[in-house]
């Protein structure tokens, strides 16, 4: 859409709450293959040797890139390179390439042909699985580049990178100090490339659509990853505002509203990236996702291994709090070393605390022991334990009993420990409805808006057909949040879903009575800055109006100041 001031505004999906400004540079992604020779000129043995050598070089490059990615974006995001290595050595893909060579195709054409079918199969799927086609394209192009001896072209410093789509390796190789931002024609927030861009802190907007192709190289653009917007030919006022927003410096100290209400701003972490959270000004860890300790391995982590990981987090925040969420698997996160029963709808089945109390009770006990031991870390901050997917008081009481049993066992064994403070995640409508009962039994409640939205709206968050219902600003979700914060006990309430990282929603959440916001490290500076601008009384008035709204559009208009 062209504005009266000549700006062109394109809408997409924001990935990172950050803003970038710079000239357009289009990423060259198409690998043009040379014309294949006549079939009788193809030496099958020679082509197979080329493929084997190219695969070995690609695996070596992947290993180097993985090591670099661990340093830049953390272990969990870097694991995508393990998946790519698995694709490179996948027997079915290898057989497909071999069959194409048997049809007298040269190596690079054989690779192209073998990947066409699997890529098409992923593209035909719904939800995030469709985005795995990008991973296959990445592996295919990597192998073809090795066969052709081509290197990825350099990206001019300070430019905004545009592409039809970005692959994970494209994204992981970007330097956030050099690239001003990225925007793509296709893609979604859950694609691996988007996840890596978010971890890097790169301003990014994906899924802009065909309009993006109209932007020529050199065009000045603003990439607003917070609002999901690309602005071409920005006027001086827009550009100055973008430059100001781009320079959001971390705020090390705790923050409070303009009228003195303190709000804790913590980090969500899913690996050992505690230092990155501290660098961005996190007051602590509001959500320590412990699944990374249990997944992508052949056996569960030991008690000592877990204790060390939790203690490392505590030592990073000696004056803060670290909230460890107990093992949250099932649904979309099965354990490779435990066979689970197949379920027609795993998101409504055995996951979170349900599976921890039953078939994974041994792992749960070990984790609780590790948490109690880590809580006694000398020089560390406060350790809290948080139980996921609680739906009933009985589940909470059973989890608390297991924690008490773990502490008692440590005492009998003469092992140093402390009892952590206790909280529950509010992710189910039932938990929101009985928040008063839950709050009376714990120290805090933490609202997981991603799952809460999914269950309140009865909309699978991995199904794009109902993506429009996956909206945490729907009045039904806001009323569930309000029901939770109105529990009437001393327990404090936090939000640890993606909503917590959106500065445009900070005032509303504070008005709803939220005491803590936990988000990705890169979003923390902007959220802290917004907290300082808000007046608690005005926030409450905004929340009251939002709770009276009947539609998502009405809420959006309120947030836009209408």
**Large-scale geometry:** globular
| Strand line-up across the major sheet | 1-8-7-3-4-5-6-2
CATH superfamily of the largest domain: Phosphoenolpyruvate-binding domains
Beta strands, count: 17
Strand content: 5-15%
Give Rg in angstroms.
25 Å
> Which spans of ≥5 residues are poorly predicted at pLDDT below 50?
none
Largest beta-sheet details: 8 strands, mixed
Number of domains: 3
Please estimate the helix content.
40-55%
Number of helices: 23
CATH architecture of the largest domain: Alpha-Beta Barrel
Judged by helices, strands and strand pairing, the structural class is alpha/beta
CATH topology of the largest domain: TIM Barrel
Mean pLDDT: 88
CATH class of the largest domain: Alpha Beta
Distance between the termini: 21 Å
Give a description of the structure.
The protein has helices at 44-73, 75-78, 80-88, 91-102, 107-123, 132-148, 168-172, 192-200, 236-246, 274-279, 291-294, 303-316, 353-357, 361-374, 393-413, 429-433, 435-439, 449-456, 475-485, 503-511, 524-533, 536-548, 552-559; strands spanning 8-11, 13-14, 19-26, 160-163, 181-184, 204-206, 220-224, 229-232, 255-256, 262-269, 285-289, 321-325, 382-387, 421-426, 444-447, 492-495, 516-519. With 562 residues, it is of the alpha/beta class. The protein has three domains: 8-28 and 153-246, Phosphohistidine domain (Glucose Oxidase, domain 1, 3-Layer(bba) Sandwich), CATH 3.50.30; 39-148, Enzyme I, Chain A, domain 2 (Orthogonal Bundle), CATH 1.10.274.10; 259-559, TIM Barrel, CATH 3.20.20.60. The strands form two sheets. It has an eight-stranded mixed β-sheet. Strands 10-11-12-13-14-15-16-17 form an eight-stranded parallel β-barrel, surrounded by five helices. Residues 52-79, 389-416 form a coiled coil. Belongs to the PEP-utilizing enzyme family.
């Amino acid at each position: 859409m062209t504005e009266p001031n000549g700006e062109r505004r394109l809408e997409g999906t924001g990935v990172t709450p950050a803003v970038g400004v710079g000239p357009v540079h289009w990423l060259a992604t198409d690998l043009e293959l040379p014309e294949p020779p006549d079939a009788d000129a193809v030496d099958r043995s020679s082509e197979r040797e080329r493929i084997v050598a190219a695969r070995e070089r690609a695996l070596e490059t992947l290993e180097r890139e993985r090591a670099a990615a661990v340093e830049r974006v953390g272990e969990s995001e870097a694991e995508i390179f393990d998946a790519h290595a698995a694709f490179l050595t996948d027997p079915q893909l290898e057989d497909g390439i071999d069959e194409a060579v048997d049809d007298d195709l040269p190596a690079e054409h054989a690779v192209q042909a073998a990947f066409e079918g699997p890529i098409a199969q992923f593209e035909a799927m719904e939800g995030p699985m469709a985005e795995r086609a990008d991973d296959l394209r990445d592996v295919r192009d990597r192998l073809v580049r090795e066969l052709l001896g081509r290197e990825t072209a350099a990206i001019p410093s300070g430019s905004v990178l545009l592409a039809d789509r970005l692959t994970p390796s494209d994204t992981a190789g970007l330097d956030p100090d050099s690239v001003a931002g990225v925007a793509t024609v296709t893609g979604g927030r859950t694609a691996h490339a988007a996840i890596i861009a978010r971890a890097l802190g790169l301003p990014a907007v994906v899924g802009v659509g065909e309009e993006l192709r109209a932007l020529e190289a050199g065009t000045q653009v603003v990439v607003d990853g917070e609002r999901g917007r690309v602005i071409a030919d920005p006027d001086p006022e827009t550009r100055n505002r973008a430059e100001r927003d781009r320079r959001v410096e971390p705020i090390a100290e705790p923050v409070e509203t303009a009228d003195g209400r303190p709000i804790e701003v913590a980090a969500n972490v899913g690996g050992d990236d505690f230092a990155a959270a501290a660098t961005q000004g996190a007051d602590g860890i509001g959500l320590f996702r412990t699944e990374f300790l249990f997944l992508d391995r052949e056996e569960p982590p030991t008690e000592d291994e877990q204790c060390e990981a939790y203690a490392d987090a505590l030592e990073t925040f000696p004056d803060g709090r670290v909230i460890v969420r107990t093992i949250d698997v099932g649904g979309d996160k099965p354990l490779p070393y435990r066979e689970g029963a197949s379920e027609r709808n795993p998101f409504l089945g055995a996951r979170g605390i349900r599976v921890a109390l039953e078939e994974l009770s041994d792992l749960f006990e070990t984790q609780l022991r590790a948490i109690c031991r880590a809580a006694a870390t000398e020089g560390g901050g406060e350790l809290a334990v948080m139980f996921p997917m609680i739906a009933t008081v009985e589940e909470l009481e059973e989890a608390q009993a297991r924690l008490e049993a773990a502490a008692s066992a440590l005492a009998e064994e003469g092992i140093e420990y402390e009892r952590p403070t206790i909280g529950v995640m509010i992710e189910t409508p039932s938990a929101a409805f009985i928040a008063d009962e839950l709050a009376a039994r714990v120290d805090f409640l933490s609202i997981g808006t991603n799952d809460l939205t999914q269950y309140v709206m009865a909309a699978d968050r991995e199904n794009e057909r109902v993506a429009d219902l996956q909206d945490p600003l729907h009045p039904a979700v806001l009323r569930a949040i309000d029901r939770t914060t109105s529990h009437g006990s001393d327990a404090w309430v936090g939000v640890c879903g993606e909503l917590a990282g959106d500065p445009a929603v900070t005032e509303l959440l504070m008005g709803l009575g939220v005491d803590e916001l936990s988000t990705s490290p890169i979003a923390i500076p902007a959220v802290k800055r917004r907290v300082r601008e808000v007046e608690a009384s005005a926030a409450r008035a905004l929340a009251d109006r939002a709770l009276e709204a009947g539609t998502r559009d009405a809420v959006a208009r309120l947030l836009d100041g209408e």
